[in-house]
Automatic annotation (TrEMBL):
Pfam families: APH_6_hur (PF04655). GO terms for molecular function: kinase activity; phosphotransferase activity, alcohol group as acceptor. The keyword Transit peptide does not apply. This is Aminoglycoside/hydroxyurea antibiotic resistance kinase.
Length: 300
């Protein structure tokens, strides 16, 4: 199957720090894809577009017509951790792994086919948040013994390095986010398996269950960290309302209460994650995204 890697993937990989870019993987992606298809004896139907920012997803089928999805990600994205999380969830609240026999060879994942064009973002926001919370409840379980996942403290310490060198224009917000992170990680807390990148667009319609999550960037830690990304979902819509900062705080309280998460910890992680994403967007030249994220963090 001849194809060009989706431009969204190419742009996203290009925004990574030079030492983190896997240009060799991207350059060989057509050949890697053909080899992965051949190993699993599946036939490509089409590339899922616009696709993700860290992987290529092909809609495929077995010889008997059974649909599936083949996902390829660069080694730096740690697809081994994604496989470990999906295997541990066993299809409960998440997409199911159909075949992992060749994963160590090429890092690809053969997954059940969901409906990529129908995510929770297709629902009104209130209904989408309700379904999202129900999905998160299923994912928050004890991690497997000897798991390969990093912790919230480890991931945010690494992310904090970029905040310490943030430009002067966002220095005050970056310092506030670092202080919040230090307070939140001062004492050991919950150690649950988290999705790591959970938002409405990561929950797709399925056949065996109405909604199933995809694309985890798994780690271990407290629920408030996982819920924080959901708080800023549909950010442009939130920013366009007249509710302003009061509306953002109400959203934090509503989500915290619905999942019995501490309000202050959810607010703190929401601030940290928004500032970290905003500084990263600024470094990548996405000033519009950065301004939205940083203004939202300032509201909280």
């Amino acid at each position: 199957m001849a194809f060009e890697p989706p431009q969204r993937l190419v742009r996203a990989l290009g925004e990574l720090p030079e030492e983190a870019r896997d240009t060799q993987w991207l350059g060989h992606l057509p050949e890697l894809t053909e080899e992965a298809l051949h190993r699993r004896q599946v036939v490509a139907q089409r590339v899922q577009a616009p696709g993700g920012r860290s992987s290529l997803v092909l809609l495929v089928r077995y010889a008997d017509g059974t649909p599936a999805a083949l996902k390829l990600a660069p080694p730096g994205a740690r697809p081994d951790r994604e496989l470990a999380a999906l295997a541990h969830w066993g299809g409960f609240g998440a997409v199911r792994v159909l075949d992992s026999r060749h994963h160590e060879t090429d890092g690809a994942l053969l997954l059940e086919r969901l409906h990529p064009e129908v995510s929770l973002r297709s629902l009104p926001d209130a209904k989408a948040l309700l379904e999202a919370c129900g999905t998160l409840r299923r994912l928050w379980v004890e991690p497997p013994p000897g798991h390969p996942f990093e912790t919230v403290a480890e991931r945010t310490a690494r992310q904090g390095e970029a905040l310490r060198t943030a430009p002067a224009e966002v220095r005050a917000l970056a310092d506030s986010a670092l202080a919040v992170r230090a307070e939140l990680t001062a004492l050991p807390g919950e150690q649950l398996l988290l999705h790591g990148n959970f938002r409405q667009g990561k929950v797709l319609a399925g056949e065996r269950a109405p909604w199933l999550t995809v694309g985890p960037d798994p780690l271990v830690g407290e629920r408030a960290y996982d819920l924080a990304r959901l708080v800023r979902d549909r950010l442009e819509d939130q920013m366009a309302t007249s509710a302003g900062a009061a509306g953002a705080r109400r959203r934090v309280h509503r989500l915290a209460d619905s999942l019995e998460v501490d309000r202050d910890r959810l607010r703190g992680w929401t601030v940290f994650r928004a500032v970290e994403s905003g500084v990263r967007a600024l470094a990548a030249g996405r000033r519009g995204d950065a301004e939205l994220l940083l203004e939202f963090a300032a509201w909280l």
